[in-house]
Amino acid sequence: MKLAVFALSSLTVAVGFAQDVRPDRVVTLSVSNLQCPKCKTAVEAALKQVKGVTESSADLVVKTIVVTYDHHLTSAARLVSQLAAVKPLHGKPYEAALLLSAETLTKEQADKLITDLKAFKNPLDAEPVGNVVVDLEKKLIAVSFKPVKLDDPKDRGTDVAPLVNAAKKTVATVKAVAPIKEPIKEAVKDAAAKEPAKSKEPTKK
Asked: What phi and psi, each to the nearest 5 degrees, are found at residue 133?
């Protein structure tokens, strides 16, 4: 009888922990140096270890990873830092950036978005954005973050919603990107690189 009670108690605790995670965010991150199936397995496994993450799926063709998580327990910035902490299999780190998109986007709007997002501040993380790159042709905005202290649970980092709200002040149609099916430009894939922010003009045909 005691064994049965213990088993029931353990099950109740396990269910309680499961119920505490309520996935309500889905983001797409571009990931540089994602080259092989082992890379895919490594980054997916690393993100699934993050408290609040319920699903992660990397795509080697478009060099992205789609993550489902509970924003009360983690954030987009924390996911990016977690990827950077993964031991690289090909020498270079897995640098990631949050992808946003817009239905319409002009060169002037793109330049203002870059300025506004790099100056973005929130109460928990004064200046969280590291770099911003815009692909005008595909209307994609890649946002990288300054590192989050992964060993400090209080360092939550910045999530996608405040950034989208800030971007909407310039372009009302900005939103988090759904899974991408087509390859994206190197400039967007490598937004996490320490380069000056810039927007890319569409290629003239």
From this structure: -130, 135
Give the span between the Cα atoms of 21 and 14, in whole angstroms.
12
Here the tokens at position 60 are: 């080697």
Is residue 190 in some structural domain? yes
Pull the structure tokens for residue 127.
């200046």
Domain that includes residue 174, residue range: 22-200
Residue 162 in any domain: the answer is yes
1 falls within a domain: no
Q: How far apart are CA 104 and CA 139, in angstroms?
A: 7
Note the Cα 79 to chain centre separation in Å: 6
The reply to whether 89 falls in a domain is: yes
Which amino acid makes up residue 101? S
> Which tokens is 91 given?
């020498």
| Among 87, 66, 75, 44, CA closest to 146 | 75
> Which tokens is 164 given?
């989208």
**Count of the separate structural domains present in the chain:** 1
**Which of 187, 188, 203 lies closest to 29, judged by CA?**
188
CATH at residue 36: 3.30.70.100
pLDDT tens, 35-94?
A: 999 999 999 999 999 999 999 999 999 999 999 999 999 999 999 999 999 999 998 999
